[in-house]
Write a structure and sequence with these properties.
The chain has two domains: 218 residues, 3-Layer(aba) Sandwich (Rossmann fold), CATH 3.40.50; 176 residues, Glycogen Phosphorylase B (Rossmann fold), CATH 3.40.50. 41% of the residues lie in helices and 17% in strands. It is built from 16 helices and 14 strands. The strands form two sheets. An eight-stranded mixed beta sheet has the order 3-4-2-1-5-6-7-8, with helices on both faces. It has a six-stranded parallel beta sheet with strand order 11-10-9-12-13-14, sandwiched between helices. Helix 6 links the parallel strand 7 and strand 8.
C-alpha cells in the first residue's frame, strides 16, 4: 500500500499535529506501508522555522522511513487572522506542484490530507482524480469554525462562503475522519455521509510515556524547582484558544511560595511574551522551552498535576492533542471544560473538571489535590489505564489503516485490523 500524506506540520515538531503526523508516517513505514509526505519545514509552536531548515526553498529528506518533501511558506511571527490566511495560502500554492507530481508519478493508493490546512484539499482532490487514489481528509482542527468563533475573522459573508466551500470539499472526499466524537458529529452535520466518516483519534505510545519514580526529579533540579514542591504543569502551545492567562490568575489566588507550589509553563507560541509579562512578579511561575523527544517522558513526569485549560468558545472545535500524553504519564489532570464537552466528559472519568476560564474553581481543585496525594495517585493511574485501553498507538493505527478499514475504500492493506478501541 502507498500512502501520500500532505499537511503543514510534521516531525521534528514536538507538539500538536506535527507530532502525530510524523508518528503516523513512522508507524506505517514500520508496518510495511510505502509512505511519502508533502509538508512544510518545522516551525510550530514557536512560529519560527527551525534551525537547519529554510522557509524559502524546497528540500527532500528521509524521516522515520518516509520520503519527505518540504515546501516553502510564509511564517508570521505574530499570526493574526489575515497573516494566518497568507501563511496557509503560501503553503497551498508551493505544495501544489509537488503534490501533483508525486501523485501522477508515484501513483499512491491513498492521499491523506491533514487539516489544517483545508486549502490543500482542492489540489489533493485533483491529484487523486489524476492518479486514481482515494482521497482521505483527516480533521485535526476545524480551522474555519475556530477562526470565526475565536474572533480571528469576523465577516458574516466570509463565514457563510467559507463554510459552504468547506462542506463542498468534504463531501467530495472518499473518507473524512476526525479525532473526537463531538468533532465527528460536526463532520456529519457539514454534509458528510455517516458511511464515509470515521473516528480516528490521536494516540499515545505507552512504551515511551510511562510513570517514573525518583528519576523524574532531574528536570526539576535543572529548572531550580524544589524537590518537595508540588508542580502544576501546562505543556504545549501558548496560543489564544488555550486561555492561558487564567493560569497566572490562578497562581495569584493560590498565594503559595515557590517552595510549596510551582506552575511550570513549558512550550512556545505567540502568547508567550504576554504570559511572561503577566507572571513577571510571580517567582513560582517558571517558563521552559519544549523539551526534546528523548526527554518528553521525564517532562510529563515532572508534573504532579497536569493542567488543561480551554476557552469555552473553542470546545469541540479542537480536541487538545496533549490529553492522551498527559493521561499516559500516570499524573492526574485538571481540565477547564464544560461537563458536556468531549474533554469534560473524558477527564471527569479520571480527573477533575472545572468551568472553563474559572481561575477560582481551578485553584480550589488544585488545593484539594495537594492535600490528598493518595487521590492524586489513584486518579493518575486510572487515567493511564483508560488511555491505554482507548488510545494505544498500535490499536488506533491498526484500526485506521487495517485491512477492514481500507477495504471500505477499495484499497488492499497488509496491515491487520485491530478491534475498535475508542470508548465513547
Amino acid at each position: 500500500m502507498k500512502v501520500l500524506i500532505t499537511g503543514l506540520n510534521f516531525t521534528p515538531e514536538l507538539t500538536g499535529i506535527g507530532k502525530y503526523s510524523g508518528e503516523m508516517a513512522e508507524w506505517l513505514s514500520a508496518s510495511g506501508v510505502d509512505v511519502r509526505a508533502v509538508v512544510a519545514p518545522p516551525y510550530y509552536p514557536g512560529w519560527s522555522v527551525s534551525a537547519g531548515y529554510r522557509g524559502v526553498r524546497y528540500c527532500a529528506e528521509q524521516v522515520g522511513g518516509a520520503r519527505v518533501f518540504r515546501c516553502p511558506l510564509y511564517v508570521p511571527s505574530r499570526p493574526s487572522g489575515v497573516r494566518r490566511i497568507v501563511h496557509l495560502l503560501t503553503f497551498a500554492l508551493s505544495s501544489a506542484p509537488v503534490l501533483l507530481w508525486q501523485a501522477i508519478r508515484w501513483r499512491p493508493d491513498v492521499i491523506l490530507v491533514v487539516e489544517p490546512p483545508l486549502v490543500c484539499t482542492p489540489v489533493a482532490w485533483l491529484a487523486a482524480r489524476l492518479s486514481g487514489a482515494k482521497l482521505w481528509l483527516h480533521v485535526q482542527d476545524f480551522e474555519v469554525d475556530a477562526a470565526f468563533d475565536l474572533g480571528m475573522l469576523r465577516s458574516g459573508w466570509a463565514r457563510r462562503t467559507l463554510l459552504a466551500l468547506e462542506s463542498a470539499l468534504m463531501r467530495r472526499c472518499d473518507r473524512v475522519s476526525t479525532i473526537s466524537n463531538r468533532m465527528l458529529e460536526r463532520v456529519i452535520a457539514k454534509g458528510v455521509a455517516p458511511g464515509r466518516s470515521q473516528l480516528f483519534p490521536n494516540w499515545s505510545d505507552f512504551e515511551r510515556i510511562r510513570p517514573l519514580g525518583s528519576a523524574a526529579t532531574t528536570l526539576r533540579a535543572e529548572l531550580g524547582i524544589a524537590a518537595e514542591a508540588t508542580v502544576l504543569m501546562y505543556s504545549g502551545t501558548f496560543a489564544t484558544k488555550q486561555g492561558l492567562g487564567m493560569l497566572v490568575e490562578m497562581m495569584r489566588m493560590l498565594g503559595r511560595s515557590r517552595e510549596e507550589v510551582v506552575l511550570l509553563m513549558c512550550g512556545a507560541g505567540p502568547e508567550k511574551s504576554a504570559l511572561e509579562a503577566a507572571a513577571a512578579d510571580l517567582p513560582n511561575v517558571v517558563f521552559a522551552p519544549l523539551q526534546p523527544l528523548q526527554r518528553l517522558n521525564e517532562l510529563m513526569n515532572t508534573a504532579d498535576i497536569h493542567l488543561l485549560p480551554q476557552r469555552a468558545d473553542a470546545e469541540d472545535l479542537v480536541m487538545p492533542s496533549k490529553v492522551t500524553t498527559m493521561l499516559a504519564s500516570g499524573r492526574v489532570v485538571i481540565a477547564g471544560a464544560r461537563p458536556v464537552s468531549e474533554v469534560g466528559r473524558l477527564v471527569a472519568r479520571v480527573g477533575i473538571v472545572v468551568p472553563p476560564g474559572d481561575a477560582r474553581a481551578m485553584s480550589e481543585a488544585v488545593e484539594a489535590l495537594i492535600a490528598d496525594p493518595e487521590r492524586r495517585h489513584e486518579l493518575g493511574m486510572a487515567g493511564r489505564a483508560l488511555a491505554r485501553e482507548c488510545w494505544d498507538i498500535n490499536a488506533v493505527l491498526s484500526e485506521a489503516f487495517g485491512d477492514r478499514s481500507m477495504a471500505t475504500l477499495g484499497v488492499d492493506s497488509a496491515v491487520p485490523s485491530a478491534a475498535p478501541c475508542v470508548s465513547s
